[in-house]
Amino acid sequence: MSIRPYKNTMPTLGMRCYIDPSAVIVGDIMCGDDVSIWPLVAARGDVNRIQIGNRTNIQDGTVLHVTRRTANNPAGYPLVIGEDVTIGHKCMLHGCTLGNRILVGMGAIIMDGVSVEDDVFIGAGTLVPPNKHLESGYLYVGNPMVKKRPLNDAERQFLAQSAENYVLLKNDYLGD
């Protein structure tokens, strides 16, 4: 079964979510409305929580995880993903916070304590080291990441359009 409890805590799904049968989501995970989680995604809300906002899509092979609470870090690092976010294929998101209308390119890695403001484009293969803050309205690329340039109007519009495209695709899968 792809949706499983951890210590009696079951993932919760909003309305019209699509979870591919090959994905595995476990524990304290809350998905908003119209979320789509695609093949081979692994999401473990075991030692902290995962929150996924409305109309967000998590693409094939992505890993979502968290960091436990400790004496030195009493809150640990939950994973919080905003609304209208596109997480590309084979990404790794670990204990970070993403705002709204963000595109995370294929193979990107975003580490503990990172905070990303709204309207950000993170290029494919980018590594965002722990505790970095990414400012709204920019393209970030590289390993380690660098702030490359401001987003243009077409790129800003694409952030919301990408999320909408995946809502339409998940509706096809649901037969809506």
UniProtKB/TrEMBL annotation:
Q: Which domain of life is it from?
A: Bacteria
For this protein, the record's Gene3D superfamilies field holds:
Hexapeptide repeat proteins
What Pfam families does the entry give? Answer: Hexapep_2
The entry's protein name is: Gamma carbonic anhydrase family protein
UniProt organism field = Alteromonas aestuariivivens
